[in-house]
Each structure stands twice: as structure tokens, then as C-alpha cells.
Amino acid sequence: MIWDLTGKAVRSNRDVILDFGFWTKQSRDDARVRAASLGARVRLYSVICDEHTILSRLRERNRSLDVESLPIDEHGFRAVAATCEPPGPEEQAMSVETTDDGYRVLE
Fold first, then answer.
1. Strand 94-99 relative to strand 45-48: parallel, antiparallel, unpaired?
2. Which residues span the domain enclosing 99?
């Protein structure tokens, strides 16, 4: 359904942000090919956040969860983070660093 909506948006000349995580190079490559086949111009952003900030945000998120949401504990975060493949230089990702003070685009 997300890809169908993405195609409709692209054909309507709208911007689309796909936030699936894309934790592996293969998943990013597959998404780039699929998005390009829809006629989209593809740009990859890599969000960088230090572990202290991530864990602080997770604790805050877990405190304010509704009944239907799934908490993510520190162990769960570390297990998922261990599977992450950061973008390599060949992927030409634009890096954005996020902190408690805001964000900045890295050159």
C-alpha cells in the first residue's frame, strides 16, 4: 500500500519521504530501484544520533506509550542497532545529525 501511495504522489509531482528504517544496504538499493521505477528522483538521508540521546529518547517514548504501542528497551535497541549497515560513500547519503539541541546537516 505504501508503494502504491508513493507512486500516486510521485505522479502528482509531490515529494515523498519513505521512513522504513532502511537498515541494510540491500534494502536501500531495492528501495532506490523501486522509487526510480516510479519516476522519482531519489535522495538518501542518513540520520546520525549519539547513543546517549537515542536511549534518552527511548526512555521518554516508553514512558508515554499508549496501550497498543510496543516499548523498546535498551537491550532491544542494541540488538537492532547491531544489524544496522550505515550508508557507504558510494551511496552519497546526506547526513543529518540530531541532538537534544536540534539538528544540523553535515557536509
1. parallel
2. 2-106
